[in-house]
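Tutorial sheet, problem 5. The two components below are modelled jointly, 707 residues in total.
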Amino acid sequence: MTREKMGNILVWILIIGFGVWGFQGMVDRFANGHVNTAYGSYIPWGLWISAYIWLIGLSAGALMISVMTYVFNVKAVKKVGKMAFLVAIATLVGAMMSVGIDLGHPLRAFKLIYDPNLSSMMGWMAVLYSAYFVTLCIELYFAIRKEQVRGEKQKAIKKILVVLGIWSIPLAFAFHGGVGGVFANVIAKPYWHGPMLPVVFLAGAFLSGGALFCTVAYIWRPAQSKDEFLKMMIFLGKTTLALLILDEILELSEVYVGTFYSAFGEGHLWQQILFGHYWYVFWIVHILIGVLIPLFLLTAKAKSPGAVALAGLLIAGSFLAVRLNIVIPGMLDPELKGIADAWVNSKLTFSYLPSVMEWQALLFIVAVVMAVFMIGKKILPIYQTAGEE
Amino acid sequence: MSKEELSRVDENLTLETDESRRDFLDKFSKGIFGGLIAGGIVNALAPVQARADMDGSNLNFAEPFKPFDLPPAIPGEDVILRMMRDLQRALKKPIEQRHWNMVIDLRKCVGCDACSVSCAAENKLPPGVIYRPVIQQEIGSYPNVGHVTLPRPCMQCDEPPCVPVCPAQATWKRPDGIVIVDYDQCIGCRYCLNACPYDARTFDFGMEYIDGAADAPKVFLGKEKAGKYETEASYEYEKEWKREDDKSPIGNARKCHFCIPRIEKGMLPECVVTCIGRATYFGDGSDPDSLVAELIASPNAFRLKEEVGTHPSVYYIK
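Model answer (structure tokens):
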């Protein structure tokens, strides 16, 4: 059995498993609203918002791979451009679903596309995601079309792809830096507020998206020959390693500044992250699984495609923990001391652990993301290469 | 998608039957992309609908105030009467010339929670939604201990951080200083909850007080009788809001609005009239003869978190 076939079977098993179990969570969400979620009014955002920034980051990272293909003409990733667009579209769909189910009135969100409040960074998100989705679809169309025509037409399409690719660079910076801005703008939350967060978001997005692509490219290998495949994997591995180091420098800077003076500001929140109840989210899921093991694989086993793919999967998967550690700690501090006890209700507390239905709904979304990718891969000529003249 | 765009897509679909898959994909995508781009251009060129209703006129606030008789001022009268006269005087002015302020005298507050409970009853607040909790704290260490109570309504900030973050333009500041939420526009993203430096907004999760209560119709009537409260409509923003299905205000951000439906009729906010110690004062701060204007000028008046620059309309006296 080929690797691709095994990958297909495994992913479809996951799609069915996550889909069936996760469906219960989606039914709960639409039958009972937000009643059975663990977030409340004092911690208003939870797992679904964390998953949204995780998935949108994966999308932005995948887009950057396509930019390498079509704008910077990087030979090692010459044949993965179309697959990168598909990954970007699938994760974008998941991100929109995740933020959609988090809304109190999801259907009203469509009005944001034509009548947003542009003083709100979240209002901008609606505009930017719409532009991003349209750009991705157009890019994928032309990337497919490029392989189907020859001569002058092919040259013209190549130029269009370069222009679209260049346009998508500021777009990616805007929409993912903008997500960081959604949090960084909140003056009431010192843990979020500051100019670093949009930069951290961008670095994390490119890292997690690039990492995911290592796994995708390994399983469904768009590169044909063995030599080409090896070059592609080594390049993807090196890129991911560089991004991992950059991301860790930024994180180290954040931890250092955040914990330097614990009596004021967000120092005690960092104490919670590092040594609080959920210490394992940072140390085990993020540092061990998401940083140290991949670091070993990407350095000691840099020439092994399998090791690079595994490192990518570990980074991309565990990045949800990084997103959770950005979103949740920011809201743990009461704005006014004593408010938690002023009016007692399960939705008026300052602690949060995602409920089962939240996890179920998220797994359903992950199943949808994988299904979009698998179906897209099946019906679109992703592997088609007609050669160039 | 317009009818033309739909018919174009439909046309492409019809063509698919006798053309190759590649040609079909080609034309189909052109139709879709063309439609999307055309739609975008039309939207970009269309004049952006101005929110002319931001003064709250769409929420039926425009009904003119009809003054009613109040007894003449006498020495030693209840401050409620003076505040009602202040209120009537303010309501005769145009909305943009008045600025509602609240003053809470912490020396008089006994932490009885009457204001919180009456507010919840007035606005038919469900579990988990609270407009005016009373924070109570022990301070000091034995034997030098004290007890502080601090009612916390919405601060109705002059620079409200909750307003610019709303992606749907569903919350804004009225000319008289009250920050309101348009339940029909709110998408329930809860960004404003995070943006408020006073935790003054809560989300309506659609919970009910009778959730989980025992139900045995022929044995006792507890749940059925109690459930009547859950279906009572609230009249916030002078509109009837029934709690049914997932309709607003379920799924919306909610907050104190100084009891707009009451003050527009010349009545003081519910928390003011139910305060047993007369610790809460309300009126037009822009009227130099009003009680609140006098209290705001006292040297021991202060506002919460002045450092965040929100300029609250609620003052405390210590």
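Marking note: Chain A has one domain: 3-379. Full credit if you identified this.
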